[in-house]
Design a protein that fits this description.
Shape: elongated
Helix content: 25-40%
Structural class: alpha+beta
Distance between the termini: 20 Å
Radius of gyration: 25 Å
């Protein structure tokens, strides 16, 4: 039995596929993408990783292709066909799905156990409260971002009633895979929605090549999400390398060849490829330009972009925090509430986009499901 709080199932999954569902990655040895939580999450990813996820999608009738960057997508580039096939398969296998049904916690008594070794869950459904008894439960209640899609983090308040007060078993939520707010001048607003490609970003000594997108409110996209996820300290500026494939010396050599009749703007365009949004960023944060060639070359390699803060948590793709590793056993079962397993973003781990975040969710879900089956001593079904 699946209890879904929203009127339809899988809303955040559908949002993940809005611009093409990057379901996983074809890259090898991806455990480092899980940061400090890799020792905890990596074994689950290795047990049910990219290869298994691709096979699962194909089992559901969805063909997968891998792009040049190693990202894996359904051939349809949409989440809805995969979700429909998934739900159809569940229903054919006698899984009951209740939507607009919110989990409100356990029936309160001394030991949480009602009778016959079952837990009693209080469910709000059709404007009434109902009790559902279960021998095993998997909670996959999400983090605390995009609350309008269902993941509001309210479950943490419910679990606090049942977990020891003297232990830090619930880590406060924080934004991950988040954009940075920037107060743009008027001339930069015309670049909203434009990608900035073939650049590198440095944040607190960590460097990554890739691309990002200018928005009306700041910076979003690939390398911004990746670096913001693992940088929890306050960031006042990021360093942008507009020409990552050229050294300072090589840029100096090119700048020295400028002819008197060539305007500075056209020379930057023809010699260094600085046009459009890249030139806009240079003008926004590098003007007035240094007079000395070498100093100007350094500016192109280390352009300081002033950022205000990360996007609010509810506008971040995912969150840090949640149920601490110490709160669950190896099977992801809550130590304080036997028979209750946890999976996905509600656990205290994080990963960048690019297939790693969804891979982690699916891997922990598979692990929790297998653990619940083992707990019930169920036999595998072909």
């Amino acid at each position: 039995c699946i209890i879904e709080a929203m009127p339809t199932i899988g809303r955040k999954f559908l949002m993940a596929g809005k611009s093409g569902l990057n379901i996983t990655t074809s890259k090898q040895n991806i455990s480092k993408q899980y940061g400090k939580s890799k020792e905890w999450i990596a074994p689950m990813v290795e047990n049910f990783g990219p290869k298994n996820i691709i096979e699962f999608c194909q089992f559901l009738g969805q063909e997968i292709f891998v792009g040049s960057s190693g990202k894996a997508f359904p051939k349809t580039m949409k989440a809805s066909p995969l979700l429909r096939s998934w739900v159809t398969y569940l229903k054919k296998n006698r899984v009951e799905i209740y939507t607009s049904a919110r989990w409100k916690g356990f029936l309160k008594n001394d030991d949480l156990i009602s009778f016959n070794g079952k837990l009693s869950h209080l469910i709000s459904y059709n404007h009434n409260d109902h009790l559902i008894n279960s021998k095993a439960t998997i909670l996959a209640l999400g983090g605390a971002s995009w609350s309008r899609l269902g993941s509001n983090g309210e479950w943490a308040k419910i679990l606090c009633e049942y977990l020891p007060k003297n232990k830090t078993l619930l880590i406060p939520f924080g934004p991950a895979n988040s954009g940075f707010r920037v107060s743009w001048s008027k001339h930069m607003m015309k670049f909203a929605g434009k990608p900035v490609k073939s650049v590198a970003i440095n944040i607190n000594g960590i460097r990554k090549k890739g691309e990002f997108v200018i928005t009306r409110n700041g910076l979003e996209g690939g390398i911004i999400y990746h670096l913001s996820t693992f940088q929890q300290n306050k960031i006042k500026h990021i360093e942008l390398d507009l020409i990552p494939d050229l050294s300072v010396q090589r840029i100096c050599e090119k700048l020295a060849k400028r002819k008197a009749k060539s305007t500075f703007t056209s020379f930057l365009k023809t010699s260094l490829g600085l046009t459009g949004v890249k030139y806009g960023l240079l003008r926004e944060f590098g003007y007035p330009y240094p007079v000395l060639i070498r100093e100007f070359a350094k500016t192109l390699k280390n352009l300081k972009l002033n950022v205000e803060k990360k996007y609010p948590m509810d506008f971040s793709i995912s969150t840090t925090g949640g149920i601490a590793r110490e709160a669950v056993d190896f099977g992801l079962m809550l130590k304080e509430i036997p028979g209750v397993f946890c999976a996905g973003e509600m656990l205290d781990w994080t990963a960048p986009t690019g297939g790693y975040l969804l891979t982690g969710c699916l891997s922990t879900g598979h692990h929790a499901g297998k653990s619940a089956a083992d707990f019930l001593k169920l036999k595998p079904v072909n």
